[in-house]
Amino acid sequence: MAWGEAVVERRNVPRVANPRDTEAALNWQLERVGSTAWQDWTLKFQRMAFGYAHDSGWQDSADAVRWLDHHALLHEGTAPRGALVWYQAVDRIRVACAVGSGQVVGPLPAGSVEVATLSDLSTDWVWSDPHFPFAH
Fold it and tell me: What domains are defined for the chain?
């Protein structure tokens, strides 16, 4: 994925605790496995999993990745449990939540909320802490 090549000033972003902690967010997501109600709403699904009822302030996952990249909040490599995993699939950037052992949970390109092996979904991903700076 091309995350951008412009050199930008990176500012510190204040961290706040999410309304739901990692395990509660993962439980919320796992309770929805099999649901097709979240198709193509990967960012909204993750925002709500971590306890935010209102918009994240980002238009879509691609907008979120640009913002996170601009603030140096993206990481490469194995995502820790509870991290947001941003991946390229079906011509767009999507987001899921790491559950461990290379697996993620969230609305998948096929349409339903599932647990899947990340490497089966994409070969191109980065991860970030579950950070929703504009949500409330």
Answer: 22-128 (3.90.1720.10)
Mean pLDDT of 20-44: 96
Q: What is the mean pLDDT of residues 50-78?
A: 92
- Residue pair 44/53 in contact (Cβ under 8 Å)? The answer is no
Could you give the 3-state DSSP secondary structure of residue 45?
Answer: helix
Among residues 96, 131, 128, 129, which one has the least CA distance to residue 115? 96
CB atoms within 10 A of CB 48: 20
Matching residue, tokens 């193509």: 40
Q: Are 107 and 38 in contact (CB under 8 A)?
A: yes
Residue 116's pLDDT band, with cuts at 50, 70 and 90, is very high
Predicted pLDDT at 55 = 79
Q: How high is the pLDDT of residue 16?
A: 62
Report yes or no: 75 and 128 within 8 Å, Cβ to Cβ.
yes
The DSSP call for residue 131 is: -
Amino acid at 120: D
